[in-house]
Amino acid sequence: MYKQMSDFHFRFMAFYFKLRDLFLPPKRILEEAEIKPGCVVLDFGCGPGSYSIAGAEMVGAGGKVYALDIHPLACKAVQKAAPKKGLKNIETINSDCTTGLEKESVDIALLYDTFHVLSEKKAVLEELHRVLKRDGMLSFNDHHMKEDEIISAVTEAGLFRLSRKGKKTYSFLK
Questions:
Q1: Side-chain half-sphere of 139: how many Cα atoms within 13 Å?
Q2: How many structural domains are present in the chain?
Q3: What is the reported pTM?
Q4: Calpha distance 33→65 (Å, rounded)
Q5: Does residue 2 belong to any structural domain of this protein?
Q6: Distance between CA atoms of 171 and 157, rounded to whole angstroms?
Q7: Which of 68, 113, 118, 129 is the 20 to 30 A CA-CA neighbour of 5?
């Protein structure tokens, strides 16, 4: 539900994220999402996979991470990085919205720095709502948006309600 960026732009973004991750490790952000061993996580708009890889380490062998992105290079990056870390609990999904996951099969959905580029925001929120378990949580971050924009955009359709605001993320319950 958003325009795929060029391969050059994706590679530049991936390089930038590697630098970012040195100063702000993904696990520090994911701690706010309260990812626990055994959880099923969907990283929607996973990019080069910083949060997918860190999340897979956090959920352990008993958990699962689905890394979804519209860009084929994103899926390839995750598929390349996972074995290097000894991770077998990550599956990539190349899609712009539809996950193909079963209804109420995900504990935590990550929507980090992606929302502002979505053309069909409501459709994405509906898909996340569909795949999240009854007590599932949407962990949200988008530094391109102000706090009031984030809260109203995610809650206006009545699919999610704000649970708490962390230092870097917003947590919304289904």
A1: 24
A2: 1
A3: 0.90
A4: 14
A5: no
A6: 16
A7: 129
